[in-house]
Design a protein that fits this description.
mainly alpha; 52% helix; elongated; 4 strands; two-stranded antiparallel sheet
Length: 233
């Protein structure tokens, strides 16, 4: 049986008779002295003796189809129901005592955060990456959603710093509301990138989806889209 040899100097490949195993000699190409490997040191790669076959009995490569369990229609329906119920509560409470605004707005923003983060991830995630599923997904979606909710509190904090002391009554200038909103959305986008491994643009859309729904919540309650952003009557 011939022994396959590769010269370490010129990388020339050639074969020698098995009786030369373990001996030294010059490479036929570059003349460098090399050692012929022993027969027992040779690595033999055996073809599989059996495997998956097609209808004609020919062996074929078996592929594995990854099951994408991220989008669950049942859970998606639950998310939709919660969103609709929250908006319905806002509709029923609109025009009532302003003291009722805070429980609905704060509770709605916190409740909707994880649900909308999960819903956005199901559509915006990178299909080339292994998706988060089960408990890992919900933990990450919950963390992202809570950051989304905290962004509203950050908006109020920034408005306090940028606006006048009575800005809730007198309102904010457009640039003040814009700066506060941009910083809040930027932090929410960053949270989507870190927790859900979304690409920056997809993370921005995920965060934007949440803020669109919560702004809609404010609009239904007959409040300005952004706190302090006054509109002409």
């Amino acid at each position: 049986m011939a022994i396959n040899v590769t010269c370490p100097g010129c990388l020339k490949r050639f074969q020698v008779a098995d009786q030369h195993a373990g001996k030294k000699g010059p490479c036929p190409n570059c003349k460098k002295i090399i050692e012929i490997p022993k027969a027992e040191d040779a690595v033999v790669i055996h073809a599989p003796t059996h495997g998956p076959k097609d209808a004609q009995g020919r062996e074929v490569l078996k592929t594995f189809k990854r099951r994408d369990a991220v989008f669950d229609p049942l859970v998606a329906t639950g998310v939709g129901v919660v969103v609709l119920l929250t908006l319905l509560a806002a509709f029923l409470l609109r025009g009532s005592d302003p003291a009722n605004d805070w429980p609905v707005l704060a509770g709605g923003s916190i409740l909707l955060g994880p649900l909308l983060a999960w819903a956005g991830y199901a559509f915006l995630r990178d299909s080339e990456l292994e998706p988060y599923t089960g408990v890992a997904l919900w933990l990450r979606a919950t963390a992202t959603g809570l950051v989304f909710a905290l962004c509203w509190f950050l908006y109020f904090y920034l408005a306090d710093q940028l606006g006048v002391s009575e800005w809730r009554v007198e309102g904010l200038e457009m640039w003040q509301a814009g700066v506060a909103a941009a910083i809040a959305i930027g932090i929410g986008t960053f949270a989507s990138v870190v927790a859900l491994d979304l690409e920056p643009m997809m993370a921005f859309l995920n965060c934007g989806f949440y803020f669109v729904v919560t702004v809609l919540l404010r609009w239904i309650m007959q409040l300005p889209p952004l706190p302090g952003l006054m509109t002409d009557a």
